[in-house]
Specification:
alpha+beta, 2 domains, four-stranded antiparallel beta sheet
Length: about 230
Amino acid sequence: MNAILSHLIDEHFLLIIVRVLIALLLSGLIGFERELKNHSAGFRTHILVGVGSCLMMVLSLYGFEAYIEKYDNVRFDPARIPSYVISGIGFLGAGTIMVYGGTIRGLTTAASIWAVAGLGLVVGAGMYAVALFTTLIILLSLVFLNNFEKLFTKGKSSMVVEIVSYPNLAINKVVSVFEESNIKVRQVEVLKVENDLRSIFIKVEPNEELNRIRLFESLSSIDAVKSVSER
């Protein structure tokens, strides 16, 4: 029994467990911030990326020691697997980027996923202080810089409203609702979806007196409108 356990649990087991747990904690903090803002990649996604990349890093560091000791011609390159993690994480980040009526959404979440992958690799390498400092910087950027940016873009902000409707909807009725609310329409895009439904993305420039609840109620009351949401 002891022989089996010693074979399954090596000298690096506890160290690896600690690093995976730290990666879980740090990536979870960033994912929780994304979850609070209702982004597509939230708490679970960031944890999986952080823990997975940490696992790949410790695999690169400790997973091939037996082969190195047994075979003299085996070369140790701990940077090989992490390099593939960094380049391969792009497909997951790209999945969070979406275009609504000419407005690109999800770039920040894609960047946070890429950063969390880096955090996992750093924690897997045992660079805890760097990981903690970087997590703090990322959280400050996500939480506070967003409000700081709004100070400079005040008056230039835009909003994208998605209206799911049936084909018989007259778009001019929708536009008239925005005009009655003194909202400037910048762009209108119509996309056909399944089950004879279509999505209408309307990019508008909201005013300071905008009442979103009243606006959405007015849009929802139009015949053939199935749902209204803000993107």
